[in-house]
């Protein structure tokens, strides 16, 4: 790089320079183009367009102006990014099927729901709507900051005063660099009521707000199917809204027909009809004889004529499932807050609007108060002059110059220069008695207004009352009924919707008794403690496995015969701490087989894999989606050689390093990519070479911070993964931990983060919960430290990892 000041060449790191430039570019796109501001719900191009139209006097009570003139003003003064982008913005704000509350009143062809483009800007005309004027109200009262435009020749508002929460009313969509926003529109009356509720009761929860505004309200109507995904969006900022078009079945006449009167938001009607026609043409949908689009200016109407004997409800259900007649709107509530992008929940969106509105009302009140005080000051001077009019006239007539008259009036009547200027400009008609009374009335009115403004500025409660009054007026002025219906039927609510998705501790015994317990049952203890009773077992039974799973997870259970079964965690009866649980045979259709491996699964994604490891050191990698269709009788998962059984099953992404650990402490690290993907019922390949009397005990993915190894006598340690050099698959690996009479053989070896917790369970059902950070980090070939103090004859049989919040979020992704 060449210095502009000295002309010398300055060496720079090109990698760092590219990173810096790209981050600057990304933030410019995020802040300056693609993501709306949480305060007024507008992107810069929308804000500049509305402001330019106001500056042109292009308001709702004035005649329309040519769109080309508006676009030229916006581009020349505020937004030099091309006329096409500005005109597209103007067009969208004028489309009744795009905006729930249009901000531009268009005249001419502004496009259609069929995807037809708007006429050229030289043909169309536009002006602001009354709703848009509410966004611009009080902008002349120093309510918002102004910044220089692109060439610093003019000033433009950083944000609009926004008397209404536009971000919720009209939503927004945009793709930035590395992030996107997709916010649905809502009903104005419901939103205003929710804002008022937050003002009245700041501690109102999101669930309580949902009773006021239960779901989005789309300009194209439709029926919202269930509210669970919407609740997720309102709680976390991300969720899903399923919208179904409105269709009726008419049985009149010779043949039945389906009439579609509303379609989901952002669905192209023409493409929807083409898709249906394509399904009929390709013989994927039978029973339709004709499709007609009878839509006109009075509304949307698509007629689907059915063949004689066709079942209308079956065809309609097919259309819902296979066409855009039922669509999902993925909600991402991403907006700019204090010049940074943030994902906001419903309450945060309302709070950001109220924070902005409070600042606007404060600045407006200060401006109005200043103007009122200046005016009442002048009026007081005028009244003094009128009360002493003869003396004032004599003083003025006796002065040689205006400055001499000013000074004389100031000294004689205790006035200031502003008051004297007003007196000297006073017209003779003000001497009339009625004019004198008008000044008195104006002074008294201003005195009351000053008192009101001072009260607003002196009290937060008064300020919120003012905001609440304005919101109520807007709701009365523009409020209307919902367009989108909401279906709360039982069919749209699954069993899971009624169950909290919280983590549970699941334990399984050798005799296949299973139970789940709330994690809060076990409080944390220091390393080396004795623990508490976690499960009552029969004399000939003992705990074999223990792990943490969420209530909505599937438990993929693999048996000693290599068959896989499914059970939801919430279907496992919740038990108290000391109960033995429920026999798995009562939950699964087992056929003289025993479950030997259990793994929690949330989604059966095709890009994830199940990695099987057997006692004899065999491994197999099978795509997860091959297990996505459960059968009551189970399905074949893996073929096991005679005398072999499963040790572990892991979820992987196909590209990680794996660590296999034997019961005598040998550990082998190798790349998962060296194991090719197989189909279900495969036999697998050799993973680790074993000594004659050794067996594979544990398998884990080489991730997180350390490898935690626990032995049956309660000893354990953490070891850096770098201690284990990658070896070829099928080799013997290296020594991991000392296994002798004092420590016993390895029970579990798994990847952990420093801020995780572990739950250790013994064969007699004793459980201890402790922090991973309390277990020391040691080199290979050491015994470790005591993790759990065991009773005589007892031994550790299971270790469960309780992930930290951050790790749990990563795993969910």
Automatic annotation (TrEMBL):
Few gyrases are as efficient as E.coli at forming negative supercoils. Not all organisms have 2 type II topoisomerases; in organisms with a single type II topoisomerase this enzyme also has to decatenate newly replicated chromosomes. Coiled coil: none annotated. The active site is at residue 123. It is found in: Cytoplasm. Keywords: ATP-binding, Cytoplasm, DNA-binding, Isomerase, Nucleotide-binding, Topoisomerase. Belongs to the type II topoisomerase GyrA/ParC subunit family. It catalyses: ATP-dependent breakage, passage and rejoining of double-stranded DNA. Pfam families: DNA_gyraseA_C, DNA_topoisoIV. A type II topoisomerase that negatively supercoils closed circular double-stranded (ds) DNA in an ATP-dependent manner to modulate DNA topology and maintain chromosomes in an underwound state. Negative supercoiling favors strand separation, and DNA replication, transcription, recombination and repair, all of which involve strand separation. Also able to catalyze the interconversion of other topological isomers of dsDNA rings, including catenanes and knotted rings. Type II topoisomerases break and join 2 DNA strands simultaneously in an ATP-dependent manner. Its EC number is 5.6.2.2. It comes from the Archaea. One of its GO terms (molecular function) is DNA topoisomerase type II (double strand cut, ATP-hydrolyzing) activity. SUPFAM superfamilies: GyrA/ParC C-terminal domain-like, Type II DNA topoisomerase. Heterotetramer, composed of two GyrA and two GyrB chains. In the heterotetramer, GyrA contains the active site tyrosine that forms a transient covalent intermediate with DNA, while GyrB binds cofactors and catalyzes ATP hydrolysis. This is DNA gyrase subunit A. Residues 35-498 form the Topo IIA-type catalytic domain. A motif (GyrA-box) lies at residues 525-531. InterPro entries: GyrA, GyrA/parC_rep, Gyrase/topoIV_suA_C, Topo_IIA-like_dom_sf, Topo_IIA_A/C_ab, Topo_IIA_A_a_sf, Topo_IIA_dom_A, Type_II_DNA_Topoisomerases. It comes from Methanoculleus frigidifontis. It is an enzyme of class 5 (isomerase).
């Amino acid at each position: 790089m060449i210095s502009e000041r000295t002309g010398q060449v300055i060496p720079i790191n090109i990698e760092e320079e590219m990173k810096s430039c790209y981050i600057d570019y990304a933030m410019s796109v995020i802040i300056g183009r693609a993501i709306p501001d949480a305060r007024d719900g507008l992107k810069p191009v929308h804000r500049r367009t509305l402001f330019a139209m106001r500056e042109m006097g292009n308001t709702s009570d004035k005649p329309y102006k040519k769109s080309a003139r508006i676009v030229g003003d916006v581009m020349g003064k505020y937004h030099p990014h091309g006329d096409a982008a500005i005109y597209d913005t103007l067009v969208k704000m004028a489309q009744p099927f795009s905006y729930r509350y249009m901000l531009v009143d268009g005249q001419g062809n502004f496009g259609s729901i069929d995807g037809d483009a708007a006429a050229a800007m030289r043909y169309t005309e536009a002006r602001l709507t009354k709703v848009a004027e509410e966004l611009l109200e009080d902008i002349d009262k120093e309510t918002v900051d102004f910044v220089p435009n692109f060439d610093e020749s003019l000033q433009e508002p950083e944000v609009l005063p926004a008397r209404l929460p536009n971000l919720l009313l009209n939503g927004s969509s945009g793709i930035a660099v590395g992030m996107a926003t997709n916010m649905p529109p809502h009903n104005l009356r419901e939103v205003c009521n929710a804002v008022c509720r937050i003002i009245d009761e700041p501690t109102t929860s999101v669930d309580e707000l949902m009773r006021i505004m239960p779901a989005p309200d789309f300009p194209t109507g439709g029926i919202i199917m269930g509210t669970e995904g919407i609740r997720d969006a309102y709680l976390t900022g991300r969720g899903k809204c399923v919208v179904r078009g409105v269709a009726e079945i008419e049985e009149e006449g010779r043949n039945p027909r389906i009439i579609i009167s509303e379609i989901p938001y952002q669905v192209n009607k023409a493409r929807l009809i083409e898709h249906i026609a394509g399904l009929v043409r390709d013989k994927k949908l039978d029973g339709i004889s004709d499709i007609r689009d009878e839509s006109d200016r009075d509304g949307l109407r698509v007629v689907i004529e059915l063949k004689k004997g066709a079942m209308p409800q079956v065809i309609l259900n097919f259309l819902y499932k296979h066409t855009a007649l039922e669509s999902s709107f993925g909600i991402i509530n991403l907006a700019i807050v204090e010049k940074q992008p943030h994902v906001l929940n419903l309450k945060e969106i309302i709070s950001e609007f109220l924070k902005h509105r409070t600042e606007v009302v404060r600045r407006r009140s200060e401006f109005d108060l200043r103007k009122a005080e200046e005016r009442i000051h002048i009026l007081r001077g005028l009244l003094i002059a009128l009360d002493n009019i003869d003396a004032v006239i004599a003083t003025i007539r006796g002065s040689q110059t205006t400055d001499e008259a000013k000074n004389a009036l100031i000294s004689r009547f205790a006035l200031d220069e502003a008051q004297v200027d007003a007196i000297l400009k006073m017209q003779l008609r003000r001497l009339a008695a009625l004019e004198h009374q008008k000044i008195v009335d104006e002074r008294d009115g201003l005195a009351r207004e000053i008192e009101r403004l001072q009260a607003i500025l002196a009290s937060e409660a008064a300020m919120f009352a003012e905001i609440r009054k304005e919101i109520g007026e807007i709701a009365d002025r523009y409020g209307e009924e919902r367009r989108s219906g909401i279906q709360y039927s039982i069919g749209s609510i699954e069993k899971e919707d009624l169950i909290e998705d919280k983590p549970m501790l699941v334990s399984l015994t050798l005799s296949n008794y299973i139970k789940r317990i709330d994690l809060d049952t076990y409080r944390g203890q220091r390393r080396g403690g004795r623990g508490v009773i976690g499960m009552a077992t029969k004399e000939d039974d003992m705990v074999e496995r223990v792990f943490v799973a969420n209530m909505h997870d599937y438990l993929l259970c693999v048996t000693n015969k290599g068959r896989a079964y499914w059970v939801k965690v919430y279907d496992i009866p919740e038990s108290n701490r000391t109960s033995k649980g429920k026999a798995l045979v009562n939950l699964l259709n087992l056929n003289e087989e025993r479950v030997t491996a259990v793994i929690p699964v949330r989604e059966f994604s095709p890009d994830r894999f199940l990695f099987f490891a057997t006692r004899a050191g065999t491994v197999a990698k099978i795509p997860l989606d091959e297990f996505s269709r459960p059968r009551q009788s189970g399905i074949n998962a893996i073929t096991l050689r005679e005398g072999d059984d499963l040790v572990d099953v892991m979820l992987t992404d196909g590209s990680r390093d794996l660590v296999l650990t034997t019961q005598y402490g040998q550990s082998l690290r190798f790349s998962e990519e060296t194991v090719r993907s197989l189909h279900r019922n495969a036999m697998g390949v050799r993973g680790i070479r074993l000594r004659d009397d050794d067996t594979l005990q544990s398998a884990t993915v080489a991730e997180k911070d350390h490898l935690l190894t626990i032995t049956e006598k309660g000893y354990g340690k953490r070891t850096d993964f770098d201690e284990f050099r990658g070896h070829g698959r099928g080799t013997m690996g290296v020594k991991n931990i000392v296994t002798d009479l004092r420590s016993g053989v390895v029970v579990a070896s798994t990847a952990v983060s420093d801020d995780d917790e572990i739950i250790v369970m013994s064969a007699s059902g004793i459980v201890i919960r402790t922090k991973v950070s309390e277990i020391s980090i040691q080199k290979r070939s050491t015994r470790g430290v005591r993790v759990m103090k065991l009773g005589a004859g007892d031994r550790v049989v299971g270790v469960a990892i309780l992930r930290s919040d951050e790790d749990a979020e990563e795993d969910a992704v």
